């Protein structure tokens, strides 16, 4: 509930003197503390401001894409520019040549798994990690009509996926670990060629295929999936209030479903012999870690009582309350100022009448003498 300020004034004026209320001193004290101000004048007045709850809660549907979308997007313009920069970095990391780790003849024993197609193709990863969470976020927007939630959820999701992608591909290029099917990438015909001295492999296969063979750790499919679906799991846990201490296990099943899909994507990478199990495990850790940081950047923790909404929404509510409080306080001050001026005029008029009466009495005494 919101709050407005109520102003109560009590004055004590001496009979023989007239005191004028100092509004400037009161405004200065009021601006320093909006909750409670006690200002004492000599001889009084005493001014006390107390709080009362009366402003209605901001209703749903008041902040839509049409009414506030452009304003919210402009406020986060620098964040969108950083997203574009991350996309450029991701493209560069996929173009450059990874580190070609030494692969000796005796090291190929664990790298002779068959070369086969992906169960989850590359083009399906953005659909799973980005499009699917985006659809869920959009559905929630049409239910609640809150542009703050929509904008920050999409921004957090994109940051989660792109930061994870940059970290994953940077590590891939730096480590250069060979995939389990590296032998068949390097020697498509099954005949190996090695350096005469070092016995390092001399690959005869397609350069692009061999290049991908040096990008085993960590798993990009897994890290992207856990980054996007991990963010979705956190988003859902806040919206359906999983940690409301009511013991509804069905809510946990809803939250675990995206994580299960991400885990199955990771398992498919091992089954297809594109990654070692350590690659999948490392990718999952990277994706979940980045997703958690990005989510908490825009939303409270899911176990928080306010975990259903973004930080920006509650900040907007606080700013609205402050505006209403200041407006109500200034209105009350203007009314009280008028009352104070009337009091001053009445006191001054009373003093003048008393003075005139004393003058008449003195004149009569002189005449009688």
UniProtKB/TrEMBL annotation:
Give the keywords, sorted.
Membrane, Transmembrane, Transmembrane helix
In this chain the Phosphatidic acid phosphatase type 2/haloperoxidase domain maps to 152-295
A Pfam family recorded for this sequence: PAP2
Membrane protein topology class: Multi-pass membrane protein
List where the protein spans the membrane.
Answer: 80-100, 120-143, 150-171, 221-237, 249-268, 280-298
Domain of life the protein comes from: Eukaryota
Where does the protein end up?
Answer: Membrane
PANTHER family recorded: LIPID PHOSPHATE PHOSPHATASE, RE23632P
* Membership in a protein family: Belongs to the PA-phosphatase related phosphoesterase family.
The protein's name = Phosphatidic acid phosphatase type 2/haloperoxidase domain-containing protein
Gene field? A09p075490.1_BraROA
């Amino acid at each position: 509930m919101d709050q407005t300020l109520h102003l109560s004034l009590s004055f004590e004026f001496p009979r023989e003197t007239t005191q004028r209320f100092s509004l400037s001193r009161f405004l200065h004290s009021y601006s320093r503390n909006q909750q409670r101000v006690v200002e004492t004048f000599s001889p009084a007045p005493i001014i006390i401001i107390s709080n009362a709850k009366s402003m209605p809660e901001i209703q749903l549907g008041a902040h839509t894409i049409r009414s506030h979308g452009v304003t919210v997007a402009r406020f986060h313009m620098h964040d969108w520019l950083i997203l574009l920069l991350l996309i450029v970095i991701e493209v560069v990391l996929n173009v450059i040549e990874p580190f070609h780790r030494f692969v000796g003849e005796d090291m190929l024993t664990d790298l002779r798994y068959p070369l086969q197609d992906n169960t989850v193709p590359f083009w399906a990863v953005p659909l799973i990690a980005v499009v699917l969470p985006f659809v869920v976020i959009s559905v929630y927007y049409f239910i609640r009509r809150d542009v703050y939630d929509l904008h920050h959820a999409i921004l957090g999701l994109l940051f989660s996926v792109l930061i994870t992608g940059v970290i994953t591909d940077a590590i891939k290029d730096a480590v250069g670990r060979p995939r389990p099917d590296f032998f068949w990438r390097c020697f498509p015909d099954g005949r190996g060629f090695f350096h005469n001295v070092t016995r390092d492999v001399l690959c005869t296969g397609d350069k692009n295929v061999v290049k991908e063979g040096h990008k085993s750790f960590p798993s990009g499919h897994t890290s992207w999936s856990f980054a996007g679906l991990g963010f979705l799991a956190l988003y859902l846990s806040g919206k359906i209030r999983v940690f409301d201490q009511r013991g509804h296990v069905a809510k946990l099943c809803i939250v675990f479903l995206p994580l299960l899909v991400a885990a199955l994507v990771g398992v498919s990478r091992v089954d297809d012999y594109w990654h070692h199990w350590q690659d999948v495990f490392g990718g999952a850790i990277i994706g979940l870690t980045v997703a958690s940081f990005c989510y908490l950047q825009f939303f409270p923790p899911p176990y928080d009582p306010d975990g259903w909404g973004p930080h920006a929404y509650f900040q907007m509510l606080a700013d609205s309350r402050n505006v209403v409080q200041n407006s109500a306080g200034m209105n009350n001050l203007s009314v009280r100022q008028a009352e104070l001026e009337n009091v001053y005029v009445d006191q001054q008029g009373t003093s003048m009448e008393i003075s005139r009466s004393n003058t008449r009495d003195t004149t009569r005494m002189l005449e009688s003498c």
